[in-house]
Every structure is written in C-alpha cells, then in structure tokens.
Specification:
Elements: H1 3-16, H2 20-34, E1 37-46, E2 51-57, E3 67-69, H3 73-81, E4 85-87, H4 99-104, E5 111-116, E6 126-133, H5 140-159, E7 163-164, E8 172-173, H6 186-199, E9 205-208, H7 215-224, E10 233-237, H8 243-251, E11 252-253, E12 265-266, H9 268-271, E13 276-280, H10 287-299, E14 301-302, E15 311-312, E16 316-321, H11 325-330, H12 336-342, E17 345-348, H13 357-374, E18 381-382, H14 384-392, H15 398-411, E19 417-418, H16 433-442, E20 448-450, E21 458-460, H17 466-480, H18 485-492, H19 496-504
Parallel strand pairs: 9-16, 9-17, 10-13, 13-16, 18-19
Antiparallel strand pairs: 1-2, 1-6, 2-3, 4-5, 5-6, 7-8, 11-12, 14-15, 20-21
Helix pairs in contact: 1-2, 1-5, 6-7, 10-12, 13-14, 13-15, 17-18, 17-19, 18-19
Bound molecules: adenosine-5'-triphosphate and magnesium ion (MG).
The site of adenosine-5'-triphosphate has 16 residues, from helix 7 and helix 15.
Length: 505
C-alpha cells in the first residue's frame, strides 16, 4: 500500500469512527506495512497511574493491556519529552529498556518512536512505536511521515470519548454504547434501544427532534452499528443546497447535462454504494425532487441528470428533520406518500429538558473534558454555583447550545475553572428556531411574547417563518428607538448592516 493511500485510508477510518480498538489495530497494521516495519505498537498515556498502556500491538508476543511506567524505555522517554526518537541499533542506546525483549523473546534493532499529540503545544496522549525496519534503518522521510500520522491519531483520540475506566482497570473505556454519545437517562436509553434494533435492518429511518438534539450523531450511530459500517456514510444536507442542485447532488449528472457540466459527476447515492445515505432536513427537499426521491426509496433505482440509463443502488437511507412534517403534508409542501415511505422506523430524539439535570451535567462534564484536551487546558473543574446554573438553565438550543457554551467557558478559563460568571446571560431573546418549534408543537395557538424591556413588548404569532419573525422583531425595535437604526443595532448587539438585511428580507 502506498503512503498516500494509507493517509487517505486512515482519514476515512477515522471519519467512520469504528470501534476504537479496531481503529488503532488497523492503524498499527497499516503503519507497519507502509513503513516496512516488522512491528508497530500504540501506547496510550494513562496519566492517572503514570503508566503507558498498550491498546493494540502488531506484536503477537505482547499481551494486550501491557503496562509500563512512563519513566521506562524509549517509549517512556518520548511520552515524557514529546521528542521523536529514531535509533539504528537499540542495544547501543542507553534509554533502551531491554526487559520487554526479555519477556517476549523478540530482538529489537532499529526503532522509530513518535509522540501522539495534536501539535507541539498539546499534551502527549500516547506513543506510536515502530520496530525493526525491513532493510535496516528508518530514515528522515519515515520520521516525517510517522509524525504526520501520529497527529491524525491524536485528533481521533480527542474526538472520541475515551477516558480512564472508573474502576482503574487496565485501560480506557468508551463512555457508552456508542462512541461519542453521552447519556443514561430513560428517554435516551429508549433511543439507544430503537437505534440498535433499526441498525440491524435496512429499514429507512426517520430521526426527529428539535435542533441540536443529536440527529446527525445518531444517524451515524445507526450506520456504525449496522452491517454497512465498513462502507461509506454519506450526508446530503437539503438546507444548504440551492433547489436546482439537489437532484444532481443526489443522483449525479452526465456531461453536458446543463451549462457548466463539463464531465460526468457521480451523485451521493452512487458514492454511498453499499453504505448509508443520510438525508439531513428531508423536510426541505424541494417539491420537484420529492417524487424522484420517493421512487428511489421504493425501487432503489435512479437516473443521473441528463442520463438515460437506469442505475441501481444498494444503500440504506436515514433521514432527519426538525420540521413538523405532518403540517407540511397538510399544507401540500411535502408529499404524503414520501412521508410514509421515509418513516418506516421513526425515532424521536428527546430535547435536553426532558433528559433531566443529571444528564445535562454529564454532558457538560463530557464537553468540558473534550475542549480542555483540545485547548490544552488543565483538567476542568466546575464551581458549585456554575453547576447549579448549568443544571437549571433551559438550553433552548439543546445539546449544541450546551456544547458551545462549555467550549467558550473552557476557552475563557486558563485554569480550567468554570465559574457561574461564564454562564450565558439571559438577554432579550429572539424567538429562536427551536423555541418556536417547541412551543409550536406544544400549543400551536399560543403567542410568544418577546420582551425587549419590561414596558415595551411585542407579540409575535407562532408558526411564522423565522426570517419573518426576526423582521418583525427588528422592525419593532427600530420603531422603539424612534427610527434610529444605529441605536437599535446597539440594543440588539448586532451591526447596523444586520439590521438593514433583516428589514430587507
Ligand atoms: N448525546 C450526546 N452526546 C454527546 N454529544 C452530543 C449528544 N447529542 C448531541 N451531541 C453533540 O451536540 C451537537 C449537536 O448535535 P447534532 O448536530 O447531531 O444535532 P442535530 O439534531 O442534527 O441538530 P440540527 O437540527 O440543528 O442539525 C453535536 O456536536 C453533537 O456531537
Ligand atoms: Mg443536524
């Protein structure tokens, strides 16, 4: 395997978030092959115990979960100093520790060992070690290459939720059934259960839930828990595409299909072959494409734009929406037959407020760990008042809002201490997308009252398109400022241009 294809390969492995041990194992195997090393091992730093632990080793002699103190050997040296070490003859290097060779009966000659970390400032998370290059010694190029790959591995480590096992066992455990997913409350457990059942089948799944409840995350969870996990997971986001482009994005186009189509381009459906196609915000699928997509769901056949040939795809479809699809159907904006086809299995993701304060706290702690590692901050600590406030906050933007908030709290706290002063301030709130949706679902006729100040209030009816609601709100604010847009901009905390844009819409 060429070096370049290894990088691409590893990148796609990382993106697919397979089981972490499998990922490290595969990475080791391929590294050894690409760098023509006889053995490759990945050691992870267990800071709590001051040890290095092997997670995986292309070294049959080495028991998995082997530990050694951080201060021992060349791997230990690299973990402590962050240096890259390249030696031609290990037995001549005073840092070399021969005790592992004695246990395994293996003879180490050349070595190339690099730290696993995101950049020179970031903490060292582990060490990747190659032994005995086939034809003698590792060179400069091997070294640069290994450092680049170790950086990628570091990112993967940061992205996953690996952490020391509670019982202090030999290793690190995934926090929950699914990589990167936190939550033990009853409503979220019910979701896990449905996800797992759905994953075993090829049934089309419709994920529903307010913004920021994890629809994207769970779509991926379905994929990685399905028999298609080794194949691609491909997303089509219906909100970001201009309507004219959706068909070609989905099904591809032939050369000359339209102006500018100078070559044949495969669609996402083709790219997802064998895997999972994730249609994000299916409620926004343009009306003229809905029929074609319905046919695709029913028969798994399609034509490229400008093409005559009927093609067939073997993929599973997962769709998501935060919209009130029933209403869209009633109003004729969404085809009823597509609605039934898309929701063979429907999974509703609960909003954060339904998951309980404990879950909010564990998510907060989870994100704090993630961002502290990412920003090189010390182990985060929450002041009691901050915790109380976090647990009590309404989090209208759900997990995403909580995540962003924790990220900025960590970024602003060099000592890792999260205080109540970091909490989002409750200023005048626009009727947010989610708030609108949420109350729309609960009580469709109830108006939302936005209160810029105690004495001046306006009533914005529910169910308006967000832009229209924003326009009304901005307009009212400008009037309240006697038509002074600069002052209105200041009171809303935005620039004057934003005011102008909102009013023009
Ligand atoms: N249970 C969870 N555990 C850990 N992280 C989560 C969880 N749920 C959501 N997140 C994180 O919260 C953020 C928002 O999730 P995601 O993008 O999947 O939401 P969404 O429902 O697709 O939102 P939208 O409708 O706005 O697209 C992501 O960064 C995601 O990783
Ligand atoms: Mg999403």
């Amino acid at each position: 395997m060429s070096r370049l294809s290894l990088i691409v390969d590893l990148a796609s492995l990382l993106a697919r978030e397979v089981d972490f041990d499998t990922l490290l194992g595969t990475a080791c195997e391929r590294l050894a092959r690409a760098l023509r090393a006889d053995r490759a091992t990945i050691w992870i730093v267990d800071a709590e115990h001051g040890d290095l632990v092997t997670r995986v080793a292309v070294l049959p002699e080495l028991p998995e979960g082997l530990r050694q103190p951080l201060v021992r050997g060349i791997a230990g040296h690299v973990a402590l100093t962050g240096d890259v070490v390249r030696v031609d003859d290990a037995s001549q290097d005073p840092r070399f520790d021969s005790s592992t060779d004695k246990v395994t009966g293996y003879t180490t000659r050349s070595m190339l060992v690099a730290p696993i970390r995101e950049d020179a400032q970031a903490p060292v998370r582990g060490v990747v070690q190659l032994l005995n290059r086939e034809d003698g010694a590792f060179d400069e190029e091997d070294e640069q290459y290994l450092v680049a790959l170790a950086t990628q591995l570091a990112r993967a480590l940061t992205l996953t939720t690996l952490r020391a096992a509670d019982g202090g066992g030999p290793g690190l455990v995934l926090q929950s059934t699914f990589n990167k997913i936190v939550g033990r409350s009853a409503p979220i457990r019910a979701v896990y259960e449905r996800i797992q059942l759905a994953a075993q089948t090829d049934a089309t799944v419709l994920l529903r839930g307010e913004t920021g409840t994890g629809k994207g995350l769970f779509a991926r969870a379905i994929h990685v828990n399905s028999r298609r996990q080794a194949r691609p997971f491909i997303t089509v986001d219906c909100t970001t595409l201009p309507a004219q482009l959706v068909e070609s994005e989905l099904f591809g186009h032939e050369r000359g299909a339209f102006t500018g189509a100078d070559r044949r381009v495969p669609g996402k459906v083709e790219l997802a072959e064998g895997g999972t196609l994730f249609i994000d915000e299916i409620g926004d699928l343009p009306p003229d494409i809905q029929g074609k997509f319905l046919r695709f769901l029913q028969e798994r056949t399609f034509e490229r734009v400008g093409g005559r040939q009927t093609l067939r795809a073997d993929i599973r479809v997962v769709a998501a929406t935060h919209r009130d699809l029933e209403r869209a159907v009633a109003e004729g904006r969404f085809r009823e037959d597509l609605y039934y086809r898309a929701r063979v299995v429907e999974i509703e993701l609960p909003p954060l407020r339904a998951r309980g304060a404990d879950e909010i706290e564990s998510l907060a702690r989870h994100f704090a760990d993630v961002y502290a590692t990412r920003y090189g901050r010390p182990t985060p600590r929450f002041e009691p008042a901050a915790l109380v406030a976090i647990r009590a906050h309404a989090w209208p933007g759900n997990v995403r809002e909580l995540e962003h908030w924790i990220e900025s709290a960590i970024a602003l706290a060099p000592d890792g201490r999260v205080t109540a002063s970091h909490l989002p301030r409750r200023g005048p709130e626009l009727p947010t997308d989610s708030a609108r949706r949420e109350s729309a679902a609960a009580a469709p006729q109830r108006p939302v009252v936005a209160e810029p100040t105690a004495e001046h209030a306006i009533t914005i009816p529910l169910g308006l398109p967000l832009e229209e609601a924003v326009r009304l709100y901005v307009d009212a604010t400008v009037k309240d400022c006697d038509g002074n847009k600069t002052e209105a901009a200041r009171s809303l905390g935005v620039g004057r241009n934003t005011i102008g844009r909102a009013l023009r819409r």
